[in-house]
Amino acid sequence: MTHWRERKRERTRKALREAAFRLFVEHGYEATTVERIAAEAGVSHMTFFRYFPTKEDVVLRDDYDPLLEELVRAQPRRLPPLRRVRDAVLSVFPAVYAQDRRALYLRSRLLLSTPILRSRMPESLRGSQDAFERGLGDPSGAEPPPLAARVVASACVAALTTAITAWVENNGDTDLIALVEEAFDALEAPGTDDD
Amino acid sequence: MTHWRERKRERTRKALREAAFRLFVEHGYEATTVERIAAEAGVSHMTFFRYFPTKEDVVLRDDYDPLLEELVRAQPRRLPPLRRVRDAVLSVFPAVYAQDRRALYLRSRLLLSTPILRSRMPESLRGSQDAFERGLGDPSGAEPPPLAARVVASACVAALTTAITAWVENNGDTDLIALVEEAFDALEAPGTDDD
DNA sequence: GGAAAAATGTTAGGGACTAACATATTAATG
DNA sequence: CATTAATATGTTAGTCCCTAACATTTTTCC
After folding, report:
1. For residue range B117-142, what is the model confidence (pLDDT) as tens digits?
2. Euclidean distance between CA atoms B80 and B137, whole angstroms
3. Rounded distance, CA A104 to CA A45, Å?
4. Could you say which of A184, B25, B79, B93 would form a disulfide bridge with B83 (CB–CB 3.0 to 4.6 Å)?
5. What pLDDT shows up at residue B4?
């Protein structure tokens, strides 16, 4: 096996993330020191920073973006951009939701209730926005996406964030999928009056 | 004069902000220490933190939100929400733009080019989003704004951010007002195909 | 002018993060 | 298997953001 190294790296990475998450949920984000996380994972604090650039990244990092880009690109181009993003998201979200609802809820709640994390949520979502833009834009990726595509992408991210926020505010009781659909509806029919 | 205190506070606040801005533009955000900013403004570093909770807030803080809320609320309620926000923004933005274009450009560029600031931009814009939501929602403010209003508000903030980003990426050469209008257009006609 | 209140300074310290260097562990080679 | 190179990890010392506690000054009010 020439890949013992990578497997060990994956293990430490996972150990760090899980230790961090456990401690965050138990004692709160601010009260948990990097030193402690590292100790819990059996490494030194330097090793932590070699795996995650900052303390915040342990929570913020996720890796769905390439998938999202492909899904958007796979939508029929005759559909309006907003619809393509919507269908792409809803083609995969229900499965993730069904499988990891609790983890998703805990993570979202931690994100929303910790000021410094909440403030960086959009940064983490920025990756998804880029994915949407690229999925909507020129398949070759040669030229930058037009402003319209970028606006739609950012609006979709905003709608998703709003839906998840409402979900967490409601203690995760309501159906997130329904909220997401409602949010996209509001985007697609911006002329409709509220309440 | 019973308000010498407030005037002096305003002066120190302004001195701190200007010193910070000058040093940031000259040496970069990271390279500028709070100690230095305080010294430049003739106070100690503790005083700095008594005026601004964090180093980032010197750049991020602005105070347009109450105005925005009022402007949105003042729009005719027969108009669709998106239109109300658009008209509200465009009723005041051109004047600000005409007067403070260069300062606005420098500030935006600093924000966008400094990772830690960029990541907190949406947080700073969150205040505007709340203002939009309140402006769109129940005038009494008794009940929370409906999801539709929140989505529209977040989408508008997203559109504005996208427009400003494009403006800065273009070195501030294009007309920002036109970009903002184009961004709102893309929101109002999400069905239109791109390019 | 003197007391109360508010602003500011001083000092000490915690905690995130970095740089430099030392050490250990794994991989490739003879 | 021993050696050497590459990579991962640890140690230490230090910078900087930010806070707490307390002392000192400045402003306001009586």
Report:
1. 888 887 788 888 889 998 988 777 67
2. 12
3. 27
4. B79
5. 73
Task: Read off the tokens for B53.
Answer: 């909770």
The answer, for A112 touching chain B at a CB cutoff of 8 Å, is no
Residue A95 CB contacts under 8 Å (≥ 6 apart), including other chains = none
Rounded (10°) CA dihedral B73, B77, B79, B81: 50
CB B146 within 8 A of CB B137: yes
Q: Which residues contact B29 (CB under 8 A, 6 or more apart)?
A: B59, B110, B114, B116, B117
Q: What is the pLDDT of residue B195?
A: 42
The residue among A187, A46, A139, A142 whose CA lies nearest residue B159 is: A187
The DSSP 8-state label assigned to residue B137 in this structure reads S
pLDDT single digits (tens) A145-165: 788 888 899 889 989 988 999
Interface test with A, best of B147, B160, B175, B179 (most A CBs within 10 A): B147
Give Cβ neighbours of residue A32 (< 8 Å, ≥ 6 apart): A20, A23, A24
Structure tokens at A191: 């002329």
Q: Give the separation between CA B93 and CA B98, rounded to whole angstroms.
A: 8
